[in-house]
Amino acid sequence: MQMKNTFKEIIFLFIFIFNLLVILGFTTSSETINCGEEIIISGDIMDKSVEGENPISPSEKFETKEYSLLASYEYDINEDKIQETIALYTSAKKDSNGEILWDDGQKWVLVVQEEDKDYELYNNYLQLGTINFAVFTAEDGFHITIVEDAVISPTVVDYIFNKEESSFIPSIYSDSLKNVNTLYISKRY
After folding, report:
1. Tens-place pLDDT, residues 124-156
2. Domain limits at 151?
């Protein structure tokens, strides 16, 4: 089961990278961050808690006019030669300078947008936390992984695209530490 351990290690690495990006403020802009390096670390880091629950099929277009776009990435997920857009939105509004007006909590939405339909992967209110996402391919297919980084305990959800069913299969991972109260995270210098 070397592949499962490698996948768990990649998820752990995403949590670490996303925490750094949040600290540095990358989640408050529409910038796309690309990372082309393959990173391999060792150790059994994460425990899978739920796999394959409730596949997410496409539905009607998600109405975005009440939301602020935080980040997006384009990729031909279903290999139909048309790029889909993976977009992260928040209910927090922007000021006249385009800065996000964060509150203690807001709604977060991650959606895969096609021309005439959308996949609503994540749509939740999160108190004292952020959502970040990563897009990657692996031996088992196309992945969109989110990190729900809350003060109490982070959660990682990996969505694998099932081309035959035209759906995303979620797998929920939880950090091995439960009920963590984050006290301080330093900035990168």
Report:
1. 988 888 888 899 999 899 999 998 877 666 788
2. 2-34+45-174
